[in-house]
Give the backbone structure.
Amino acid sequence: MNVKVIKIGENLLAENDKIAGANAELLRHNGIASFNVMGTPGAGKTALLESLIPELNRKFPCAVIEGDIAGTFDSERLKKLGIPIVQINTAGACHLEAFMLQKGLEHLSLGGLKILFVENVGNLVCPAEFTLGIMKNIIVSSVTEGDDKPAKYPLMYKISHLCVLNKTDLLDLSTFSPEKFNAYAKEINPALEIIPVSAKTGENIDKIVTWITNAVRVV
Amino acid sequence: MNVKVIKIGENLLAENDKIAGANAELLRHNGIASFNVMGTPGAGKTALLESLIPELNRKFPCAVIEGDIAGTFDSERLKKLGIPIVQINTAGACHLEAFMLQKGLEHLSLGGLKILFVENVGNLVCPAEFTLGIMKNIIVSSVTEGDDKPAKYPLMYKISHLCVLNKTDLLDLSTFSPEKFNAYAKEINPALEIIPVSAKTGENIDKIVTWITNAVRVV
Protein backbone atom coordinates (compact mmCIF):
# COMPACT_ATOMS: atom_id res chain seq x y z
CA MET A 1 0.00 0.00 0.00
CA ASN A 2 1.09 3.50 -0.81
CA VAL A 3 1.53 5.35 2.46
CA LYS A 4 1.93 9.12 2.38
CA VAL A 5 3.96 10.30 5.36
CA ILE A 6 4.03 13.95 6.33
CA LYS A 7 6.62 14.92 8.91
CA ILE A 8 5.43 17.57 11.31
CA GLY A 9 6.49 18.82 14.71
CA GLU A 10 8.53 21.72 15.93
CA ASN A 11 10.15 22.21 12.53
CA LEU A 12 6.71 22.79 11.00
CA LEU A 13 5.87 25.49 13.51
CA ALA A 14 9.34 27.01 13.02
CA GLU A 15 8.72 27.16 9.27
CA ASN A 16 5.31 28.76 9.92
CA ASP A 17 6.91 31.35 12.22
CA LYS A 18 9.53 32.18 9.57
CA ILE A 19 6.85 32.93 6.96
CA ALA A 20 4.81 34.81 9.60
CA GLY A 21 7.86 37.00 10.21
CA ALA A 22 8.08 37.78 6.50
CA ASN A 23 4.35 38.62 6.40
CA ALA A 24 4.75 40.96 9.38
CA GLU A 25 7.72 42.66 7.73
CA LEU A 26 5.83 43.11 4.43
CA LEU A 27 2.83 44.66 6.21
CA ARG A 28 5.04 46.92 8.36
CA HIS A 29 6.99 48.05 5.29
CA ASN A 30 3.70 49.10 3.68
CA GLY A 31 2.41 50.83 6.82
CA ILE A 32 -0.57 48.48 7.11
CA ALA A 33 -2.20 47.75 10.48
CA SER A 34 -3.44 44.17 10.54
CA PHE A 35 -6.02 42.35 12.63
CA ASN A 36 -6.56 38.58 12.92
CA VAL A 37 -10.28 38.13 13.63
CA MET A 38 -10.96 34.76 15.26
CA GLY A 39 -13.87 33.04 16.98
CA THR A 40 -16.20 30.10 16.89
CA PRO A 41 -18.50 29.56 13.86
CA GLY A 42 -21.41 31.96 14.16
CA ALA A 43 -19.86 34.26 16.81
CA GLY A 44 -20.39 37.17 14.42
CA LYS A 45 -16.95 37.78 12.89
CA THR A 46 -18.36 38.72 9.47
CA ALA A 47 -21.19 40.76 11.04
CA LEU A 48 -18.58 42.70 13.03
CA LEU A 49 -16.60 43.45 9.85
CA GLU A 50 -19.83 44.54 8.14
CA SER A 51 -20.36 47.06 10.98
CA LEU A 52 -16.78 48.28 11.28
CA ILE A 53 -15.54 48.61 7.72
CA PRO A 54 -17.95 51.34 6.46
CA GLU A 55 -16.82 53.51 9.42
CA LEU A 56 -13.10 52.79 9.14
CA ASN A 57 -12.75 52.73 5.36
CA ARG A 58 -13.57 56.46 5.06
CA LYS A 59 -10.27 57.37 6.73
CA PHE A 60 -8.23 54.19 6.38
CA PRO A 61 -8.54 52.13 3.20
CA CYS A 62 -9.39 48.55 4.26
CA ALA A 63 -9.00 45.10 2.73
CA VAL A 64 -10.14 41.67 3.93
CA ILE A 65 -8.60 38.23 3.56
CA GLU A 66 -11.32 35.63 4.24
CA GLY A 67 -10.37 32.16 5.46
CA ASP A 68 -12.93 29.39 5.05
CA ILE A 69 -12.79 25.65 4.71
CA ALA A 70 -15.14 25.77 1.74
CA GLY A 71 -17.24 28.27 -0.16
CA THR A 72 -17.31 32.05 -0.46
CA PHE A 73 -20.24 32.88 1.83
CA ASP A 74 -18.46 35.54 3.87
CA SER A 75 -16.75 37.19 0.87
CA GLU A 76 -20.14 37.41 -0.84
CA ARG A 77 -21.51 39.19 2.23
CA LEU A 78 -18.59 41.63 2.30
CA LYS A 79 -18.57 42.38 -1.44
CA LYS A 80 -21.10 45.18 -1.02
CA LEU A 81 -18.56 47.14 1.08
CA GLY A 82 -16.64 47.88 -2.12
CA ILE A 83 -13.20 47.00 -0.72
CA PRO A 84 -10.61 44.47 -1.94
CA ILE A 85 -11.40 40.95 -0.70
CA VAL A 86 -9.35 37.79 -1.12
CA GLN A 87 -10.93 34.42 -0.33
CA ILE A 88 -8.71 31.58 0.89
CA ASN A 89 -10.23 28.11 0.97
CA THR A 90 -8.24 25.84 3.27
CA ALA A 91 -9.64 22.64 1.73
CA GLY A 92 -10.40 21.02 5.08
CA ALA A 93 -7.79 22.69 7.29
CA CYS A 94 -9.34 24.12 10.43
CA HIS A 95 -7.17 27.26 10.59
CA LEU A 96 -5.13 29.63 8.46
CA GLU A 97 -1.34 29.21 8.36
CA ALA A 98 1.28 31.83 7.56
CA PHE A 99 1.90 30.48 4.03
CA MET A 100 -1.81 30.84 3.24
CA LEU A 101 -1.75 34.49 4.33
CA GLN A 102 1.43 34.97 2.27
CA LYS A 103 -0.42 33.69 -0.81
CA GLY A 104 -3.38 35.92 0.02
CA LEU A 105 -1.17 39.01 0.29
CA GLU A 106 0.19 38.35 -3.21
CA HIS A 107 -3.32 39.01 -4.52
CA LEU A 108 -3.70 42.43 -2.85
CA SER A 109 -2.31 45.82 -3.95
CA LEU A 110 -0.68 46.79 -0.66
CA GLY A 111 0.24 50.36 -1.60
CA GLY A 112 -2.37 52.76 -0.17
CA LEU A 113 -3.94 50.16 2.14
CA LYS A 114 -4.07 51.11 5.81
CA ILE A 115 -6.01 48.26 7.42
CA LEU A 116 -6.02 44.54 6.71
CA PHE A 117 -8.57 42.33 8.40
CA VAL A 118 -7.97 38.59 8.25
CA GLU A 119 -11.08 36.58 9.09
CA ASN A 120 -9.82 33.21 10.26
CA VAL A 121 -11.67 29.87 10.01
CA GLY A 122 -14.43 29.55 12.64
CA ASN A 123 -12.70 27.62 15.42
CA LEU A 124 -11.76 28.45 19.03
CA VAL A 125 -8.76 26.13 19.09
CA CYS A 126 -6.35 25.75 16.18
CA PRO A 127 -6.20 29.31 14.79
CA ALA A 128 -4.63 30.32 18.13
CA GLU A 129 -1.74 27.90 17.54
CA PHE A 130 -0.51 29.32 14.23
CA THR A 131 0.93 32.84 14.10
CA LEU A 132 0.30 34.59 10.81
CA GLY A 133 2.41 37.75 11.18
CA ILE A 134 -0.63 39.85 12.04
CA MET A 135 -0.28 42.80 14.45
CA LYS A 136 -3.31 42.29 16.70
CA ASN A 137 -5.43 39.27 17.54
CA ILE A 138 -9.14 39.87 18.05
CA ILE A 139 -11.30 37.14 19.56
CA VAL A 140 -15.00 37.54 18.80
CA SER A 141 -17.06 35.81 21.48
CA SER A 142 -20.82 35.91 21.82
CA VAL A 143 -23.30 35.91 24.67
CA THR A 144 -25.09 32.85 23.27
CA GLU A 145 -21.92 30.73 23.58
CA GLY A 146 -22.00 30.88 27.39
CA ASP A 147 -19.75 32.60 29.92
CA ASP A 148 -17.35 29.67 30.50
CA LYS A 149 -15.58 29.77 27.13
CA PRO A 150 -12.36 31.56 28.20
CA ALA A 151 -11.79 28.85 30.82
CA LYS A 152 -12.50 26.03 28.36
CA TYR A 153 -10.48 27.43 25.44
CA PRO A 154 -7.71 29.31 27.28
CA LEU A 155 -5.06 29.66 24.54
CA MET A 156 -7.32 31.76 22.32
CA TYR A 157 -7.96 34.25 25.12
CA LYS A 158 -4.30 34.24 26.13
CA ILE A 159 -2.99 35.30 22.71
CA SER A 160 -5.71 37.90 22.01
CA HIS A 161 -5.32 41.65 22.42
CA LEU A 162 -9.02 42.48 22.20
CA CYS A 163 -12.11 40.44 23.02
CA VAL A 164 -15.27 41.62 21.27
CA LEU A 165 -18.17 40.18 23.24
CA ASN A 166 -20.94 40.17 20.64
CA LYS A 167 -24.73 39.66 20.74
CA THR A 168 -25.34 41.76 23.87
CA ASP A 169 -28.87 42.29 22.49
CA LEU A 170 -29.56 38.72 23.69
CA LEU A 171 -28.16 39.28 27.19
CA ASP A 172 -31.56 39.59 28.89
CA LEU A 173 -32.72 36.31 27.35
CA SER A 174 -29.74 34.28 28.49
CA THR A 175 -28.08 33.11 31.69
CA PHE A 176 -24.75 34.60 30.53
CA SER A 177 -22.90 36.42 33.34
CA PRO A 178 -20.61 39.19 32.03
CA GLU A 179 -18.88 39.19 35.46
CA LYS A 180 -18.04 35.48 35.21
CA PHE A 181 -16.89 35.83 31.59
CA ASN A 182 -14.64 38.78 32.46
CA ALA A 183 -13.20 37.00 35.50
CA TYR A 184 -12.35 33.85 33.50
CA ALA A 185 -10.83 35.88 30.66
CA LYS A 186 -8.80 38.18 32.93
CA GLU A 187 -7.48 35.20 34.89
CA ILE A 188 -5.94 33.87 31.67
CA ASN A 189 -4.93 37.24 30.25
CA PRO A 190 -5.03 40.24 32.62
CA ALA A 191 -4.12 42.61 29.75
CA LEU A 192 -7.06 41.51 27.55
CA GLU A 193 -9.41 44.36 26.72
CA ILE A 194 -13.06 43.23 26.62
CA ILE A 195 -15.67 45.34 24.81
CA PRO A 196 -19.30 44.15 24.79
CA VAL A 197 -21.07 45.00 21.52
CA SER A 198 -24.07 44.16 19.41
CA ALA A 199 -23.19 43.99 15.73
CA LYS A 200 -26.96 43.79 15.17
CA THR A 201 -28.04 46.98 16.97
CA GLY A 202 -24.70 48.78 16.59
CA GLU A 203 -24.24 49.15 20.37
CA ASN A 204 -20.59 50.00 21.22
CA ILE A 205 -19.38 49.50 17.64
CA ASP A 206 -17.93 53.03 17.96
CA LYS A 207 -15.70 51.76 20.78
CA ILE A 208 -14.23 49.07 18.50
CA VAL A 209 -13.72 51.71 15.80
CA THR A 210 -11.77 53.79 18.35
CA TRP A 211 -9.71 50.79 19.50
CA ILE A 212 -8.77 49.96 15.90
CA THR A 213 -8.07 53.61 15.04
CA ASN A 214 -5.67 53.82 17.99
CA ALA A 215 -3.90 50.68 16.77
CA VAL A 216 -3.67 52.08 13.23
CA ARG A 217 -2.10 55.32 14.49
CA VAL A 218 0.89 53.54 16.06
CA VAL A 219 1.87 51.63 12.90
CA MET B 1 18.65 22.16 18.54
CA ASN B 2 16.54 19.27 19.65
CA VAL B 3 13.81 18.76 17.04
CA LYS B 4 10.95 16.43 17.86
CA VAL B 5 9.52 14.93 14.68
CA ILE B 6 6.14 13.26 14.71
CA LYS B 7 5.26 11.27 11.62
CA ILE B 8 1.64 11.50 10.67
CA GLY B 9 -0.41 10.85 7.55
CA GLU B 10 -2.51 7.96 6.40
CA ASN B 11 -0.85 5.57 8.84
CA LEU B 12 -2.01 7.76 11.75
CA LEU B 13 -5.62 7.69 10.56
CA ALA B 14 -5.30 3.94 9.92
CA GLU B 15 -4.10 3.44 13.51
CA ASN B 16 -7.01 5.60 14.75
CA ASP B 17 -9.47 3.52 12.70
CA LYS B 18 -8.06 0.29 14.14
CA ILE B 19 -8.61 1.46 17.73
CA ALA B 20 -12.04 2.83 16.74
CA GLY B 21 -12.92 -0.66 15.48
CA ALA B 22 -11.93 -2.16 18.82
CA ASN B 23 -14.01 0.47 20.69
CA ALA B 24 -17.03 -0.33 18.50
CA GLU B 25 -16.61 -4.05 19.13
CA LEU B 26 -16.31 -3.53 22.91
CA LEU B 27 -19.48 -1.42 22.98
CA ARG B 28 -21.39 -3.85 20.76
CA HIS B 29 -20.29 -6.81 22.91
CA ASN B 30 -21.74 -5.04 25.96
CA GLY B 31 -24.98 -4.09 24.17
CA ILE B 32 -24.31 -0.36 24.56
CA ALA B 33 -25.74 2.18 22.11
CA SER B 34 -23.31 5.05 21.70
CA PHE B 35 -23.68 8.64 20.50
CA ASN B 36 -20.90 11.07 19.54
CA VAL B 37 -22.26 14.54 20.35
CA MET B 38 -20.43 17.22 18.38
CA GLY B 39 -20.86 20.92 17.66
CA THR B 40 -19.29 24.33 17.99
CA PRO B 41 -18.47 25.74 21.46
CA GLY B 42 -21.70 26.97 23.01
CA ALA B 43 -24.09 25.19 20.63
CA GLY B 44 -25.69 23.56 23.65
CA LYS B 45 -24.23 20.05 23.71
CA THR B 46 -24.12 19.87 27.52
CA ALA B 47 -27.53 21.54 27.84
CA LEU B 48 -28.96 18.89 25.49
CA LEU B 49 -27.49 16.09 27.62
CA GLU B 50 -28.92 17.76 30.74
CA SER B 51 -32.38 17.63 29.12
CA LEU B 52 -32.13 14.13 27.66
CA ILE B 53 -30.45 12.06 30.32
CA PRO B 54 -33.07 12.33 33.11
CA GLU B 55 -35.67 11.02 30.60
CA LEU B 56 -33.52 8.26 29.10
CA ASN B 57 -31.76 7.07 32.25
CA ARG B 58 -35.02 5.76 33.80
CA LYS B 59 -35.21 2.99 31.19
CA PHE B 60 -31.67 2.84 29.84
CA PRO B 61 -28.74 3.37 32.23
CA CYS B 62 -26.58 6.16 30.77
CA ALA B 63 -22.94 7.23 31.09
CA VAL B 64 -21.07 10.20 29.65
CA ILE B 65 -17.49 10.62 28.48
CA GLU B 66 -16.67 14.33 28.39
CA GLY B 67 -13.97 15.63 26.05
CA ASP B 68 -12.51 19.05 26.78
CA ILE B 69 -9.23 20.77 26.08
CA ALA B 70 -9.00 21.90 29.69
CA GLY B 71 -11.05 21.88 32.86
CA THR B 72 -14.08 19.95 34.09
CA PHE B 73 -16.83 22.51 33.51
CA ASP B 74 -19.19 20.19 31.67
CA SER B 75 -18.64 17.19 33.97
CA GLU B 76 -19.39 19.44 36.94
CA ARG B 77 -22.68 20.42 35.27
CA LEU B 78 -23.60 16.79 34.59
CA LYS B 79 -22.62 15.45 38.03
CA LYS B 80 -26.08 16.20 39.44
CA LEU B 81 -27.60 13.64 37.04
CA GLY B 82 -26.14 10.87 39.19
CA ILE B 83 -24.68 8.85 36.32
CA PRO B 84 -21.08 7.70 35.69
CA ILE B 85 -19.03 10.46 34.05
CA VAL B 86 -15.46 10.29 32.78
CA GLN B 87 -13.63 13.50 31.90
CA ILE B 88 -10.95 13.44 29.21
CA ASN B 89 -8.69 16.48 28.90
CA THR B 90 -7.04 16.57 25.51
CA ALA B 91 -4.28 18.97 26.63
CA GLY B 92 -4.66 21.25 23.64
CA ALA B 93 -5.94 18.80 21.02
CA CYS B 94 -9.04 20.14 19.28
CA HIS B 95 -10.85 16.78 19.00
CA LEU B 96 -11.12 13.36 20.61
CA GLU B 97 -9.29 10.44 19.00
CA ALA B 98 -10.09 6.75 19.26
CA PHE B 99 -7.27 6.04 21.75
CA MET B 100 -8.67 8.72 24.09
CA LEU B 101 -12.10 7.07 24.02
CA GLN B 102 -10.41 3.70 24.61
CA LYS B 103 -8.77 5.11 27.76
CA GLY B 104 -12.10 6.62 28.83
CA LEU B 105 -13.91 3.29 28.42
CA GLU B 106 -11.37 1.63 30.76
CA HIS B 107 -12.71 3.86 33.54
CA LEU B 108 -16.37 2.83 33.09
CA SER B 109 -18.16 -0.31 34.31
CA LEU B 110 -19.72 -1.32 31.00
CA GLY B 111 -21.92 -4.13 32.33
CA GLY B 112 -25.47 -2.86 32.75
CA LEU B 113 -24.91 0.32 30.74
CA LYS B 114 -27.27 0.85 27.83
CA ILE B 115 -26.36 4.30 26.51
CA LEU B 116 -23.00 6.05 26.21
CA PHE B 117 -22.88 9.70 25.26
CA VAL B 118 -19.50 11.07 24.22
CA GLU B 119 -19.40 14.86 24.26
CA ASN B 120 -16.63 15.84 21.88
CA VAL B 121 -14.49 19.01 22.05
CA GLY B 122 -16.39 22.08 20.82
CA ASN B 123 -15.30 22.35 17.18
CA LEU B 124 -17.15 22.05 13.85
CA VAL B 125 -14.10 20.78 11.97
CA CYS B 126 -11.63 18.27 13.41
CA PRO B 127 -13.93 15.98 15.44
CA ALA B 128 -15.54 15.00 12.11
CA GLU B 129 -12.20 13.71 10.83
CA PHE B 130 -11.50 11.15 13.57
CA THR B 131 -13.80 8.14 13.94
CA LEU B 132 -14.10 6.92 17.51
CA GLY B 133 -16.05 3.67 17.10
CA ILE B 134 -19.29 5.34 18.14
CA MET B 135 -22.60 4.13 16.62
CA LYS B 136 -24.28 7.44 15.79
CA ASN B 137 -22.96 10.95 15.19
CA ILE B 138 -25.11 13.81 16.44
CA ILE B 139 -24.32 17.36 15.37
CA VAL B 140 -25.76 20.02 17.67
CA SER B 141 -26.25 23.25 15.75
CA SER B 142 -27.91 26.39 17.06
CA VAL B 143 -30.07 29.14 15.60
CA THR B 144 -27.65 31.83 16.81
CA GLU B 145 -24.81 30.37 14.68
CA GLY B 146 -26.56 31.31 11.44
CA ASP B 147 -28.17 29.22 8.71
CA ASP B 148 -25.08 28.88 6.47
CA LYS B 149 -23.07 26.54 8.71
CA PRO B 150 -23.75 23.23 6.86
CA ALA B 151 -22.40 24.81 3.66
CA LYS B 152 -19.33 26.22 5.42
CA TYR B 153 -18.48 23.11 7.46
CA PRO B 154 -19.74 20.33 5.16
CA LEU B 155 -17.86 17.29 6.53
CA MET B 156 -19.52 17.53 9.94
CA TYR B 157 -23.00 17.47 8.39
CA LYS B 158 -22.00 14.72 5.96
CA ILE B 159 -20.94 12.26 8.67
CA SER B 160 -23.82 12.98 11.06
CA HIS B 161 -26.94 10.85 11.49
CA LEU B 162 -28.94 13.41 13.42
CA CYS B 163 -28.79 17.19 13.49
CA VAL B 164 -30.25 18.75 16.63
CA LEU B 165 -31.01 22.38 15.76
CA ASN B 166 -30.96 24.02 19.19
CA LYS B 167 -32.06 27.42 20.57
CA THR B 168 -35.32 27.63 18.61
CA ASP B 169 -36.54 29.92 21.42
CA LEU B 170 -34.36 32.61 19.78
CA LEU B 171 -35.76 32.05 16.27
CA ASP B 172 -38.03 35.11 16.27
CA LEU B 173 -35.13 37.36 17.29
CA SER B 174 -32.78 36.22 14.54
CA THR B 175 -32.52 36.25 10.76
CA PHE B 176 -31.99 32.46 10.76
CA SER B 177 -33.94 30.72 7.98
CA PRO B 178 -34.81 27.08 8.84
CA GLU B 179 -35.58 26.52 5.13
CA LYS B 180 -32.09 27.65 4.08
CA PHE B 181 -30.43 25.64 6.85
CA ASN B 182 -32.35 22.49 5.87
CA ALA B 183 -31.60 22.97 2.18
CA TYR B 184 -27.85 23.38 2.79
CA ALA B 185 -27.75 20.38 5.13
CA LYS B 186 -29.80 18.12 2.88
CA GLU B 187 -27.67 19.02 -0.13
CA ILE B 188 -24.64 17.64 1.72
CA ASN B 189 -26.43 14.73 3.38
CA PRO B 190 -29.94 13.88 2.10
CA ALA B 191 -30.34 11.21 4.81
CA LEU B 192 -29.64 13.62 7.68
CA GLU B 193 -32.53 13.90 10.11
CA ILE B 194 -32.96 17.46 11.45
CA ILE B 195 -34.93 18.07 14.63
CA PRO B 196 -35.35 21.67 15.88
CA VAL B 197 -35.35 21.88 19.68
CA SER B 198 -34.94 24.25 22.58
CA ALA B 199 -32.92 22.71 25.39
CA LYS B 200 -33.98 25.77 27.41
CA THR B 201 -37.78 25.48 27.06
CA GLY B 202 -37.83 21.72 26.45
CA GLU B 203 -39.52 22.08 23.04
CA ASN B 204 -39.17 18.85 20.99
CA ILE B 205 -36.79 17.22 23.48
CA ASP B 206 -39.29 14.31 23.48
CA LYS B 207 -38.55 13.82 19.76
CA ILE B 208 -34.83 13.42 20.47
CA VAL B 209 -35.65 10.98 23.28
CA THR B 210 -37.70 8.95 20.76
CA TRP B 211 -34.92 9.07 18.14
CA ILE B 212 -32.36 7.82 20.67
CA THR B 213 -34.73 5.18 22.06
CA ASN B 214 -35.24 3.81 18.53
CA ALA B 215 -31.46 3.67 18.06
CA VAL B 216 -31.02 1.88 21.41
CA ARG B 217 -33.63 -0.76 20.47
CA VAL B 218 -31.68 -1.93 17.40
CA VAL B 219 -28.40 -2.52 19.27
Notes: The two ends of chain A are 53 Å apart (CA to CA). The longest strand of chain A covers residues 62-68. The CA atoms of residues 168 and 198 of chain A lie 5 Å apart.
